Protein backbone atom coordinates (compact mmCIF):
# COMPACT_ATOMS: atom_id res chain seq x y z
CA UNK A 1 0.00 0.00 0.00
CA UNK A 2 1.31 3.41 -0.94
CA UNK A 3 1.23 5.94 1.87
CA UNK A 4 -1.50 8.56 1.61
CA UNK A 5 -0.70 12.21 2.29
CA UNK A 6 -3.60 14.64 2.76
CA UNK A 7 -3.24 18.39 2.21
CA UNK A 8 -5.53 20.45 4.41
CA UNK A 9 -5.82 24.11 5.24
CA UNK A 10 -8.00 27.12 4.67
CA UNK A 11 -8.58 28.40 1.11
CA UNK A 12 -5.83 30.12 -0.81
CA UNK A 13 -2.86 28.89 1.21
CA UNK A 14 -1.51 27.00 -1.80
CA UNK A 15 -2.72 23.43 -1.30
CA UNK A 16 -3.43 22.84 -4.99
CA UNK A 17 -0.13 24.40 -6.01
CA UNK A 18 1.65 22.06 -3.60
CA UNK A 19 -0.46 19.14 -4.85
CA UNK A 20 0.72 19.82 -8.37
CA UNK A 21 4.33 20.01 -7.21
CA UNK A 22 4.05 16.76 -5.32
CA UNK A 23 2.25 14.84 -8.04
CA UNK A 24 3.40 16.34 -11.32
CA UNK A 25 -0.27 16.21 -12.12
CA UNK A 26 -2.78 18.76 -13.24
CA UNK A 27 -5.74 17.11 -11.54
CA UNK A 28 -6.30 19.85 -9.05
CA UNK A 29 -7.51 23.20 -10.22
CA UNK A 30 -5.08 25.91 -9.23
CA UNK A 31 -7.06 29.06 -8.92
CA UNK A 32 -6.44 32.63 -8.21
CA UNK A 33 -9.80 32.55 -6.46
CA UNK A 34 -10.21 31.14 -2.99
CA UNK A 35 -12.20 27.96 -2.76
CA UNK A 36 -12.50 27.09 -6.42
CA UNK A 37 -11.31 23.55 -5.92
CA UNK A 38 -14.43 22.17 -4.32
CA UNK A 39 -13.76 18.49 -4.13
CA UNK A 40 -11.01 16.23 -3.08
CA UNK A 41 -8.57 15.24 -5.75
CA UNK A 42 -6.18 12.34 -5.73
CA UNK A 43 -2.80 12.24 -7.35
CA UNK A 44 0.23 10.03 -7.39
CA UNK A 45 3.75 11.08 -6.69
CA UNK A 46 7.16 9.50 -6.50
CA UNK A 47 10.33 10.57 -4.82
CA UNK A 48 13.31 8.33 -5.28
CA UNK A 49 11.98 4.82 -4.81
CA UNK A 50 9.08 5.97 -2.71
CA UNK A 51 5.65 6.25 -4.26
CA UNK A 52 2.78 7.95 -2.50
CA UNK A 53 -0.77 9.19 -2.97
CA UNK A 54 -1.71 12.82 -2.33
CA UNK A 55 -5.20 14.10 -1.56
CA UNK A 56 -5.95 17.73 -2.26
CA UNK A 57 -8.98 19.24 -0.56
CA UNK A 58 -11.08 22.23 -1.46
CA UNK A 59 -10.56 23.60 1.98
CA UNK A 60 -13.16 25.50 3.88
CA UNK A 61 -15.91 27.90 2.99
CA UNK A 62 -14.40 31.37 2.74
CA UNK A 63 -17.41 32.57 4.71
CA UNK A 64 -16.63 31.17 8.11
CA UNK A 65 -19.84 32.46 9.66
CA UNK A 66 -21.67 29.29 8.66
CA UNK A 67 -19.26 27.22 10.65
CA UNK A 68 -16.05 25.76 9.44
CA UNK A 69 -16.61 22.34 10.90
CA UNK A 70 -19.67 21.70 8.78
CA UNK A 71 -17.70 22.23 5.62
CA UNK A 72 -14.79 20.35 7.04
CA UNK A 73 -17.06 17.39 7.69
CA UNK A 74 -17.95 17.27 4.03
CA UNK A 75 -14.57 17.83 2.46
CA UNK A 76 -11.62 17.46 4.72
CA UNK A 77 -12.43 15.03 7.50
CA UNK A 78 -12.75 12.19 5.00
CA UNK A 79 -9.42 13.09 3.44
CA UNK A 80 -7.80 13.21 6.86
CA UNK A 81 -9.37 9.87 7.76
CA UNK A 82 -7.99 8.30 4.60
CA UNK A 83 -4.53 9.72 5.14
CA UNK A 84 -1.51 8.20 6.82
CA UNK A 85 -0.01 11.63 7.33
CA UNK A 86 -1.55 15.09 7.11
CA UNK A 87 0.13 18.22 5.83
CA UNK A 88 -1.53 21.23 7.40
CA UNK A 89 -0.76 24.19 5.17
CA UNK A 90 -0.70 27.76 6.45
CA UNK A 91 0.23 30.98 4.66
CA UNK A 92 3.59 32.32 5.80
CA UNK A 93 2.74 35.76 4.44
CA UNK A 94 -0.80 36.11 5.75
CA UNK A 95 0.02 34.76 9.20
CA UNK A 96 -2.33 32.90 11.51
CA UNK A 97 -6.09 33.18 11.16
CA UNK A 98 -9.03 31.96 13.23
CA UNK A 99 -9.58 29.23 10.66
CA UNK A 100 -6.00 28.04 11.10
CA UNK A 101 -6.61 27.74 14.83
CA UNK A 102 -9.77 25.68 14.28
CA UNK A 103 -8.05 23.32 11.90
CA UNK A 104 -5.04 23.11 14.19
CA UNK A 105 -7.22 22.23 17.17
CA UNK A 106 -9.00 19.57 15.17
CA UNK A 107 -5.74 17.97 14.06
CA UNK A 108 -4.20 18.14 17.51
CA UNK A 109 -7.18 16.34 19.01
CA UNK A 110 -7.07 13.73 16.27
CA UNK A 111 -3.51 12.81 17.06
CA UNK A 112 -2.74 11.61 13.53
CA UNK A 113 0.78 12.28 12.23
CA UNK A 114 0.69 15.84 10.96
CA UNK A 115 3.25 18.32 9.74
CA UNK A 116 2.69 22.05 9.90
CA UNK A 117 3.75 23.61 6.60
CA UNK A 118 4.21 27.36 6.08
CA UNK A 119 3.81 27.96 2.35
CA UNK A 120 4.69 31.11 0.37
CA UNK A 121 7.89 31.34 2.39
CA UNK A 122 10.11 32.19 -0.58
CA UNK A 123 12.55 34.94 0.26
CA UNK A 124 11.76 34.79 3.97
CA UNK A 125 14.21 34.27 6.73
CA UNK A 126 13.21 31.32 8.88
CA UNK A 127 13.08 33.27 12.11
CA UNK A 128 10.69 36.04 13.01
CA UNK A 129 7.82 35.60 10.58
CA UNK A 130 7.31 31.92 11.26
CA UNK A 131 7.47 31.88 15.05
CA UNK A 132 3.76 32.70 15.47
CA UNK A 133 2.84 29.36 13.93
CA UNK A 134 4.26 27.54 16.94
CA UNK A 135 1.16 28.81 18.77
CA UNK A 136 -0.79 26.07 17.03
CA UNK A 137 0.95 23.52 19.21
CA UNK A 138 1.80 21.24 16.32
CA UNK A 139 5.53 21.46 16.67
CA UNK A 140 8.05 22.53 14.09
CA UNK A 141 7.09 24.59 11.08
CA UNK A 142 8.32 23.40 7.71
CA UNK A 143 8.85 26.38 5.41
CA UNK A 144 8.20 25.82 1.71
CA UNK A 145 7.38 27.67 -1.45
CA UNK A 146 5.08 25.52 -3.53
CA UNK A 147 5.06 28.09 -6.32
CA UNK A 148 8.85 28.07 -6.55
CA UNK A 149 9.37 24.45 -5.60
CA UNK A 150 11.49 25.33 -2.59
CA UNK A 151 11.56 22.91 0.31
CA UNK A 152 9.08 20.53 -1.31
CA UNK A 153 11.51 17.65 -1.67
CA UNK A 154 12.52 17.88 1.95
CA UNK A 155 8.86 18.18 2.96
CA UNK A 156 7.95 14.94 1.18
CA UNK A 157 10.92 13.25 2.83
CA UNK A 158 9.76 14.43 6.26
CA UNK A 159 6.16 13.42 5.55
CA UNK A 160 7.19 9.91 4.54
CA UNK A 161 9.49 9.82 7.55
CA UNK A 162 6.43 10.18 9.83
CA UNK A 163 5.23 6.72 8.85
P1 LIG B 1 -5.59 26.54 -2.32
O1 LIG B 1 -6.88 27.30 -2.29
O2 LIG B 1 -5.09 26.28 -0.93
O3 LIG B 1 -5.63 25.29 -3.13
O4 LIG B 1 -4.50 27.51 -2.99
P2 LIG B 1 -3.96 27.57 -4.51
O5 LIG B 1 -2.96 26.48 -4.74
O6 LIG B 1 -5.11 27.66 -5.43
O7 LIG B 1 -3.12 28.92 -4.45
C1 LIG B 1 -3.74 30.14 -4.05
C2 LIG B 1 -2.91 31.30 -4.50
O8 LIG B 1 -1.64 31.30 -3.84
C3 LIG B 1 -2.59 31.27 -6.00
O9 LIG B 1 -2.64 32.59 -6.48
C4 LIG B 1 -1.19 30.73 -6.05
O10 LIG B 1 -0.48 31.15 -7.18
C5 LIG B 1 -0.59 31.32 -4.78
N1 LIG B 1 0.55 30.53 -4.26
C6 LIG B 1 0.62 29.19 -4.09
N2 LIG B 1 1.83 28.82 -3.62
C7 LIG B 1 2.55 29.95 -3.47
C8 LIG B 1 3.89 30.22 -3.01
O11 LIG B 1 4.67 29.34 -2.67
N3 LIG B 1 4.25 31.54 -2.97
C9 LIG B 1 3.42 32.54 -3.34
N4 LIG B 1 3.88 33.79 -3.26
N5 LIG B 1 2.16 32.33 -3.80
C10 LIG B 1 1.73 31.03 -3.87
MG1 LIG C 1 -7.20 24.37 -4.11
TrEMBL record:
Q: Which residues bind GTP 1?
A: 9-16, 56-60, 119-122
Report whether GTP-binding shows up as a keyword of the record.
Answer: yes
Gene Ontology molecular function: any one? ribosome binding
Tell me the Gene Ontology biological-process terms attached to this UniProt entry: ribosome biogenesis
Which keywords does this chain's UniProt record carry? GTP-binding, Nucleotide-binding, Repeat, Ribosome biogenesis
Q: What domain of life does the UniProt record list for this protein's source? A: Bacteria
Residues in domain EngA-type G? 3-163
Q: Does the keyword Nucleotide-binding apply?
A: yes
Quote the function comment for this protein.
Answer: GTPase that plays an essential role in the late steps of ribosome biogenesis.
* Similarity comment: family membership: Belongs to the TRAFAC class TrmE-Era-EngA-EngB-Septin-like GTPase superfamily. EngA (Der) GTPase family.
Give the record's subunit note. Answer: Associates with the 50S ribosomal subunit.
- The protein in question is named GTPase Der
Organism of provenance: Comamonas terrigena
Gene encoding the protein = der
Amino acid sequence: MKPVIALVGRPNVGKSTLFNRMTKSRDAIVADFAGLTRDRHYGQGKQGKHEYIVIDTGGFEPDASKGIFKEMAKQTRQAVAEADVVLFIVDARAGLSAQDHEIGNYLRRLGKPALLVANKAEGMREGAQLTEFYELGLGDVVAVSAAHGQGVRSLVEQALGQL
